[in-house]
Amino acid sequence: MGDTLHIDWTSCDGRGLCTELLPQLLARDDWGYPLARHGDRTNVGIGAGDSQAARDAVALCPRLALSLKTAP
Ligand code: SF4
Fold first, then answer.
1. Ligand 1 centroid distance, CA of 14 (Å)
2. 11-35: string of b/e by CB count within 10 Å (b at 16+)?
3. pLDDT tens digits for 27-59?
4. Ligand 1 center to residue 71 CA distance, Å?
């Protein structure tokens, strides 16, 4: 099981920066909010090849709405 990108919907403002950094994992819904291409909307599974881009998205999210849960 890999890492998980958690989206805090109470903080996200839907500008979509994360969807530009992780286009393979996140699309945008009609309002600009991130929409997981696979899995649920709150916890998005991250493959090993996407770890750095996920860390970048967490660091750059202007609303601090993203966090990474590392698999044990
Ligand atoms: S970068 Fe942050 S605020 Fe912007 S859409 Fe993604 S989660 Fe929401």
1. 5
2. ebeeebebbebbeebbebeeeebbb
3. 999 999 999 998 788 999 998 899 999 999 999
4. 22
